[in-house]
Amino acid sequence: MPFASRRLRMPRQTASRKGKVRKGNPYVGRLLCEFAHAASRMSSVFKSKFQALNIRRGHKRSIIAIAHKLLRTVFYMLKRREHYRDSSTDYEALAVQRNAPRWIRR
Asked: Are the beta carbons of 37 and 63 closer than 8 angstroms?
């Protein structure tokens, strides 16, 4: 994805299967890594992805992978003009839980 490689220092796959980090915007990359750290601690799809990657790849590479996933997510949200909807969250149950006291008046 050329968009991501220009925005973030992204690993690139080569024939030897080692990811080499490309040059990118260090400020955006640093921000995305901060966001990835925060997302890896929240209950979301990003946390489960981070835990799966952390076992195989290690902490730093998983943070870069989550930052790349965040960048792609934000790009497609802006492109499609949609709000973020986490697939691991049941928004209907949250709405019922939040609004139930207003619906049940004694």
From this structure: yes
Give the containing element (helix H, strand E) for 11: strand 11-12
33, 68 in Cβ contact below 8 A? no
> Do the bridges between strand 11-12 and strand 20-21 make them parallel or antiparallel, or are there none, so unpaired?
antiparallel
Which residue is listed with tokens 């796959």?
13
pLDDT in tens, 53-106: 999 999 999 999 999 999 999 999 999 999 888 777 777 777 788 888 887 876
At 12, give phi and psi (nearest 5°): -115, 135
Cβ-based neighbour number of residue 62 at 10 Å: 20
Do the beta carbons of residue 12 and residue 20 sit within 8 Å? Answer: yes
Cα–Cα dist 53/74, whole Å: 21
What is the C-alpha separation between 25 and 67, in angstroms, rounded? 13
Q: For the chain, what's the residue count?
A: 106
Q: What is the pLDDT of residue 5?
A: 58
